[in-house]
Amino acid sequence: TFPILSNSTQLEFVTENQKLEFPLQGSPVLQRNRLSPVEAELLERAIFEFIKGLKLHNVIMFHKAAVDDGLLLSELLYSNSVHVTHIEVLVVSKAVKILEHFFTTVGSSNTADILLISLEDGEEIDQLLMSLVSNKRIKTLVVGNLQRWQDRLLEVKAYEMYLIVIMHCKESVQPVDGSSTKEDDSIYCFESEDVYTVWQSFLSDEGSQKMHQVAVWKKNSKMIKMEPEIDTIIVRLALVEYWPFIRIRMVNGTVTLNDCVLKRLLNEFAKRQNLKFKLLYGHKWGGKVETDWTGAIGMVLREEADMIPFLPVTESRESVLDFTKPKAFINHGIL
């Protein structure tokens, strides 16, 4: 049997021929160096201890054929009212289509509380995850190979990926009594302890993302969280008066904001993401004149600014700019 967890009061199981699976073409695409049962249990407990504070509602776990990885983690998440879906992946392209349909169903506004988890380690699973996170910024947790994932971050735009990497190592622990198994006092026998470190992606001042260690977990101690030394990012905003969202005030030629929606959002972003903002006056949204763009759009295309808050969407603008998702639909009327 293969578990499919839900928010119901009982754990549901489906038979082998009912699994969410994709026909095998060639050899299995996911390969992994198997952990011992003890190491696998500790890994899943370490993952749970970290992610239980992320306020998740949905977790999707990827598996290769006929493995039990993730069952303990599923039970722990289920006990915390998290909906867990297990998907057996044999063909990456078909898995991508199924999951893209899932994200379309739940809606782009609901992806913030979803976490993708892969306990596998291989190029194919990397490709699957990279295909899914593009332009969705879905939280993704993987195990091992920190440097490879740091390289992967350089392949995407800085706002496209929220990555967590769990690393495992053995740490030598000297016996409490200091005894050794050899008569020679210069030779000691040390026990080893499993240590799991947690790394997370953060924006860097180079316009990409960097991995920073944010926590460490051991079997006999609680999750110890750390405050990483992350870069302070300066984001240049091209502003156009757009009541009630943007209310501009000029003070001695310097752009400031009166109390408005944008000002409150920027204060919250600065607090959560270690960001600073430089406000630039865009005069107007801008339009295309022959081959060039004017106004705030032109400032972004000329790399004089990084972002235009609350820019209304048009087909021509979408052809040159990346818009955040979800999009807001606003109707204006006159009485």
TrEMBL record:
InterPro entries recorded: Glu/Gly-bd (IPR019594)
Domain Ionotropic glutamate receptor L-glutamate and glycine-binding: 260-334
Topology of the protein relative to the lipid bilayer: Multi-pass membrane protein
Chief place where the protein resides: membrane
GO cellular component term of the entry, any: membrane
Gene Ontology molecular function: ligand-gated monoatomic ion channel activity
Localization annotation: Membrane
Gene3D superfamilies in the cross-refs: Periplasmic binding protein-like II
Highest taxon of the lineage: Eukaryota
Keywords for this protein: Glycoprotein, Ion channel, Ion transport, Ligand-gated ion channel, Membrane, Receptor, Transmembrane, Transmembrane helix, Transport
One protein family per Pfam: Lig_chan-Glu_bd
Protein known as: Ionotropic glutamate receptor L-glutamate and glycine-binding domain-containing protein
Organism the protein comes from: Larinioides sclopetarius
Lineage of origin: Eukaryota, Metazoa, Ecdysozoa, Arthropoda, Chelicerata
